[in-house]
Design goal:
Blueprint: H1 3-13, E1 19-23, H2 24-34, E2 44-46, E3 49-54
Parallel strand pairs: 1-3
Antiparallel strand pairs: 2-3
Length: about 70
Amino acid sequence: MEIRAEVDLAIDENRRAPCLWVPSEHWIAFCDQLGRAPNRIGVIVYRGKTIREGPPYSEVTTKRPDEE
């Protein structure tokens, strides 16, 4: 599954979450698939969500990576 499809799935599964984190090893591929680059603060707004680069080897998540 492509990273954009995973992000779409995460958005569909948790529509109320304001942010998503994409693992850093997939960040460039996600940007390329959208044909966009992050803004000045390093995020991409996609489908009304703030998408951020997360830690490496993590999952696409709607929870802040440092939250337990």
